[in-house]
Amino acid sequence: MFEKRLLIILILILSLKGPLYGEILERVVAFVDDIAITLTEFKKYYADAKRLSPDITPEEAIQTLINRNLLLREAERLRIRGRDDDDKIRRYIDIKIRLYIRVSDSEIERYYRENIKSLSTEPLDKLRKHIKRLLIEKKTNTLLQEHLKKLREKAYIKINYIPAD
Question: Where are the alpha helices (DSSP H) in 38-104?
Answer without folding.
Answer: 39-52, 58-77, 85-96
